[in-house]
Amino acid sequence: MCGIIGYIGKENATPILIDGLKRLEYRGYDSAGIALLHGGELAVKRSVGKLINLEQLVEREHLDGSLGIGHTRWATHGKPSEQNAHPHRSGNLVLVHNGIIENFLSLKHRLETEGYRFSSETDTEVIAHLLESYMKKGLSLREALRAADSDLRGSYAVAAICVSEPDVIVTTRSGCPLVIGKNGKGSFLASDVTPLLAHTRNVVFLEDGDIGILTSSDISVIGSDAQIVNRASVTIDWDADAAEKGGYPDFMLKEIHEQPQVIMDTLRGRFNYETGEADLPDLSMTAQELIEARRIWIVACGTSWHSGLVGKYLFEEMIRKPVQVDIGSEFRYREPMIQKDDLFIAISQSGETADTLAAAREAKKRGARVLSIVNVVGSTLARESDGVIYTRCGPEISVASTKAFTGQVMALYLLALHVGRVREVLSAEEGRWWLDQYTALPGRVEAVLKQEADIVRIAEQYYSKNNFLYLGRGINYPIALEGALKLKEISYIHAEGYAAGEMKHGPIALVDEDMPVVVLAPRDRLYEKTVNNLMEVRARSAPVIAFGFEGDQELSRVSEVVVPIPEVHPLLTPILFAVGLQLLAYHIAVFRGLDVDRPRNLAKSVTVE
Ligand code: F6R
């Protein structure tokens, strides 16, 4: 949902801003722009389309300055065009904005009566004119931002600079993430930590209503009472190289291949083999509280929701604890019967997804204990939760989520073991058995990754098809949904995930020789039923791409092609199948000649409703 960046310091701001935007491009890529302040003059450059267009424009014009802001856009108000691209200017000030201003029409009307003329269709231009109008009344830039903050409704992160205050960048947030940092040579702001990693590891996450003041030597935060507030700085231990492609053609392929490491990192130091227990100190819940938790709720969006669905099957089968799973946007607007002492688990890679955050706040309001499974350290969801399990995936840059899903499912495995042991549903011996299975998973994921050449051949054979069906049962039903989502997102092929047994209640009408059907068929207690479903689609001439256990001759006999995964306990199959389906979606998108890291219409972090 748009990325914003800012720099003030001793160095040339242009390469810092462009490099920062490259790292934020996954948040939006409809258009981009930067503004620099140099020698009392503001230079604003904007261009439509991918960042490379802006980069070339800026190179041609040799822009420099030691103070600037930049933006990469995911259009909400107004189509992608140069006029709608940020930064937006009003008089001698410019600003960039991420989010949505809900009351922009009434503010626009008010500003028009004051004589302001609008040159874009965006909600952002309202903020620029609003700041200008307050500055004209004698307020400083930071005072104008504070005044504007009380006029604005919606979710936003904003950064502004102006000619009359050439030594400062001011920034604020309400509902959208914003992080600031400094390194002795300058101060930085960004929508997330990835652009800051090359400059500093110690960052400050602003809270709603904070105003961040950046000068070339310092950063400070002013709270809503106009007093300086001390916001603790957080040390990010992500490697700066983690935000590079590292020899892979795209981030998505790199992130798919990082999954064995993600599993190891997410498990590291979090279990005690002797006692067969998971050790999750950041859970902030006593064993007694976990025992007493009446019900477990899991709420998330998109891929994270799919990992939540895996969690439901896992908790119910492994430790006999009932779980209710909801989509964030549904949970927040119905009357969920969540109560005091229920355990509410919010799952989110970014920790900034608006609907998941709103659901977690609602759960908290109703007295539930909120635990989050989050990848981004210091994100809003992590900060607002009673307890956190960080997934330790490193930055996930590709818009389509892959390694974050695996990290989330691993966190759920750990949590299931923890709850199972404290409630004494699992013995120490059983705990050790599960730990043996968990720690063997990285090697098993490697084995799936070794199937890539075969998966490329399958992709080559089927990439031109217009429809795909994904079928799974039990704990692999969410994986069928996830496989279909991955394909839709990056290849723009219509794909549906279905519970295999549900197929004959409607979707089978779609099946013909032009619809490949991907079937997840581990040898579990539902194997025969799944094979029957497979036979039903074969009888309608559909080509079947099966994913099953190594050495399954029967599956090979009834499918066009089989991708083997190592034989594991059925509850541990989801990650292995998901990795195979990620590779399938990836290679199909590559054969279709698409930009897999930046699929159309999508943004990585959905910070608006
Ligand atoms: C799919 C994808 C999205 C996200 C969803 C939630 O590949 O990336 O569906 O999973 O927007 O995002 P987080 O996990 O950041 O809350």
In summary, what is this structure?
By secondary structure, the chain is of the alpha/beta class. It has an eight-stranded antiparallel sheet, covered by helices on one side. Strands 5-6-7-8-12-13 form a six-stranded antiparallel sheet. It has a five-stranded parallel sheet with strand order 18-17-19-20-21, with helices on both faces.
Q: Please give the number of β-strands.
A: 26
CATH homologous superfamily grouping of the largest domain: Aminohydrolase, N-terminal nucleophile (Ntn) domain
N→C terminal distance: 11 Å
Q: What's the helical proportion of residues? A: 25-40%
Question: Uncertain spans, ≥5 residues at pLDDT below 50?
Answer: none
Helix tally?
19
Bound molecules: fructose -6-phosphate
CATH topology of the largest domain: Glutamine Phosphoribosylpyrophosphate, subunit 1, domain 1
Secondary-structure arrangement, i.e. CATH architecture of the largest domain: 4-Layer Sandwich
What is the CATH level 1 assignment of the largest domain?
Alpha Beta
The structural class is alpha/beta
Give the amount of beta strand, in percent: 15-25%
Shape: globular
Tell me the strand order in the biggest sheet. 3-2-4-1-10-9-11-14
Rg of Cα set: 25 Å
Counting structural domains, the number is 3
Main beta-sheet strand count, sense and barrel state: 8 strands, antiparallel
Mean pLDDT, as a whole number?
93
